[in-house]
Amino acid sequence: MGARKKISADARKEASKTLYFARLVGVPTSPRKMRLVADMIRGMEVNKALSVLKFSSKEASGRLEKLLKSAVANWEAKTEQKADNANLYISNIYVDSATMLKRLRTAPQGRGYRVRKRSNHVTLFVDTKITNDNEN
Length: 136
Fold this sequence. Notes:
CATH 3.90.470.10
């Protein structure tokens, strides 16, 4: 690795130490359905978001609840603090489309209709409000 690449790689590694996130890869629901639930909790405090997800009737909310708990656990592991006394909130959440399974459904007169079984990737970032205020 060249010196210039090593410097930028080290800078990226240092920047990632202050990011607290969790990823959910290859979820077999459509990205549109997952985005509906993600939009409900975007920017919320963690405890409030967990209660919203727990009582939501959407199937995707169970997966996002587990992902949010994982992101909080990652924050606790990196900062060595408890999340109870911290002012955690969801700083960023986005849903990307993943691979699509293409299937055929039988149709009249010997034809076949294409069925696209979509899946998605979810990335969720948590942060404390205190550090965010100090940076700005």
